[in-house]
Amino acid sequence: MKEKIIKIAEKVTASKYVPNTSSVFRAGVSAIPVVGGALDHLIFDKSDEIRTRNIEIAITSLENKYQKLEDASINLDWFLTGEAVNLFKELISLIEYEDSQEKLDAVSQLYALSSLQQFSHDQQKVWVMRKVSELSNEQRKLFVEVASIPPEERKYSSGALQSNESAIWNDAVLNLLNNKVKIDPLYCFWSKGFNVDVQLELLCSAGVLERRHSYFANNQGYKVSVFGLSILEYLKMVS
């Protein structure tokens, strides 16, 4: 399997952060006051080092993922398609300067999953990969947890008016996270200052969650969007 990935990689046209590093352009960068020297090193030297390192990590992540998958589950014919090459190009463009090795690994695994029988004919592969790369590690994990909560129907009223609302409520999300931390303190995947309400709204902005509007509810409700359901099928298999 590693040989197939290497062949795919060889077909990909290498792209540089700066395609033509002319001496005039480099001199112009170096001449920028205060930060010129640092930018020169970052753009012309460090960027290639970071890119090469990340591509090597991505290929290692792919190799590790394929070792965990059953051979019969992989559609080998998919590697002969232009889609396989284009998706690998997309992978490289998304991870080549990624700082987080955890996100790099997660996005790389999506390429391996795309070659599975169940996903190889899915037309949303590129969209899924792009969307997951946009989410932080914390947002990706929060989304999976939120999606695991079944919608709950609640009754709300205001005077003579009543309403039955079904949603994944923000207090249910908070309770789930708090309970899991109590059971296993190492479960905590977020950093200090992590605001769940804000992150839920950001997941709505990303299109993976939708707000459930309620006139009388004190809590905000959510549901997993159609696009979110597509992403979730992949993320369930990301280790």
Distance between the termini: 19 Å
Numbering strands along the chain, what is their spatial order in the largest sheet?
A: 1-2-4-3
- Roughly what is the average pLDDT, rounded to an integer? 84
Low-pLDDT segments, ≥5 res: 13-21
Derived structural class: alpha+beta
Characterization of this structure:
There is one protein chain. The chain is 56% helix and 10% strand. The chain is elongated and about 70 Å long. About 4% of the residues have low confidence. A four-stranded antiparallel sheet has the order 1-2-4-3. The relative contact order is 0.11. The chain contains ten helices and four strands. By secondary structure, the chain is of the alpha+beta class. Strand 3 and strand 4 form a beta hairpin.
Topology:
Blueprint: H1 2-11, H2 23-30, H3 36-68, H4 82-95, H5 101-114, H6 125-134, H7 137-147, E1 152-158, E2 161-169, H8 170-183, H9 196-205, E3 209-212, E4 221-224, H10 226-235
Antiparallel strand pairs: 1-2, 2-4, 3-4
